[in-house]
Structures are given as structure tokens and as C-alpha cells.
Amino acid sequence: MASIPFCKFHGFGNDYIVIERSAIPDATDLSSLAIDICNRHTGAGADGIAVIEPGYDTDSDLFCEIVNPDGSIAGFSGNGTRCAVSFAYFKKIWNAPAMRLKTRSGIKTFRMINDAPPGHYVFEAEIGKPHFASTDVPVALGKPLENVVDLPVRVLDRRCINLKRQNNF
Fold first, then answer.
1. Are 17 and 46 in contact (CB under 8 A)?
2. CA angle 124-129-130, nearest 5°?
3. pLDDT at residue 81, rounded to an integer
4. Predicted pLDDT of residue 60
5. How many helices (H) and strands (E) does the chain have?
């Protein structure tokens, strides 16, 4: 496999490997790359990869594809996109105070709040409202529900439930 330059960033407890799309050979499958590079024993280890490239339209500045460590494509990751935006500033791909980052779930807006000390970035992020409808999550249920928060889940014939409510949505 060809050598692919990357940087690893962390945001609120998640670590992402950020790569410029132009650095990845055309024949490279992003899902396979994510599986290999995210492995914490044989790769660099990460919660996913964020692949950035110039925006395709006038509505966005950059496009970011998030790929999970299992190779699945994510619609969006708040922490992953924060890492991607930090990378863009770090590598001087982008230097304006605000950025419109296109993702599979729409355009997210980031505004630089602080970049001191060098290499550390704090952004204000407009990432939209979370969706909890069973058709949006998605989750397989007998019938669609408007809200799937705090539902018991069965995993390998074991019932799992959140006993302590931490979210106030």
C-alpha cells in the first residue's frame, strides 16, 4: 500500500485520523483504509477517519467524509468534524474565521473562537438539532416511534436499559 500522510486529532474524547482526499490513491477503498488504520493494535488507532477535500459547490468551503472504524460511512460526527476543521486550520488549508463544512447530513458551520496555544483550536459549531425518530436513527422496531430515547435494547438475548437518565432533550 502507498504511504498516505495523515494527522491524528482528538475532540472531546474521540480521536480521528484526518486525511486530505488528494493524498489518497484513487484506487483506495475508504472503508478498507478505515478498518486498517483505525485498528488500535495494528494501525494508528482511532475512532474513525475524516477525509477532507474542497467543497463541490458555492454553499460549502470543504467537504468531509467520516468513515467509522468498521468501515461504515457515517452521515456525520460532531467530534470527527471538529477534528477535520482543526486539521484544515493546522495545515493552512483554511484560515478564514468561519468555515462551512459539507457532510452527508448537510452543511455545518464552524467559527474559530481561540487558537492558542498553537495547534490547539476552539470552535463554535452549528451542527443542527439531533434527530430521535426511529426512522432517522435508524432502529428496527415493530412500528415507527417519534422518539427512541431510553428504550430498552436486547443484545444477544440480554436486555439492556439505561437506569440513570442523563439527557434532558
1. yes
2. 115
3. 95
4. 95
5. 2, 10
What value does the mean pLDDT of the chain take?
A: 88
Q: Please write the tens of the pLDDT for every residue from 49-74.
A: 999 999 888 999 999 999 999 999 99
Backbone angles phi and psi of 74, in degrees to 5: -95, 145
Instruction: Please give the torsion angle defined by the CA atoms of residues 61, 130, 119 and 70, in that order, rounded to the nearest 10 degrees.
Output: -90
8 A C-beta contact, residue 79 and residue 12: yes
Q: Map out the domains of the chain with their CATH numbers.
A: 7-128 (3.10.310.10), 131-169 (no CATH)
Helix (H, G, I), strand (E, B) or coil at 166: coil
**DSSP conformation class of 72:** P
Give the three-state DSSP class for 81.
helix
Residue 33 vs residues 10, 57, 102, 114: alpha-carbon distances, Å: 19, 27, 21, 32
Q: Which helix (H) or strand (E) holds 122?
A: strand 122-126
pLDDT over 50 at 98, yes or no? yes
Task: Name the nearest CA neighbour of 104 among 77, 84, 126.
Answer: 77
Q: What is the mean pLDDT of residues 152-162?
A: 67
- How many residues does the structure list for the chain? 169
Q: Measure the N-to-C terminal CA separation of the chain; round to a whole number of Å.
A: 45
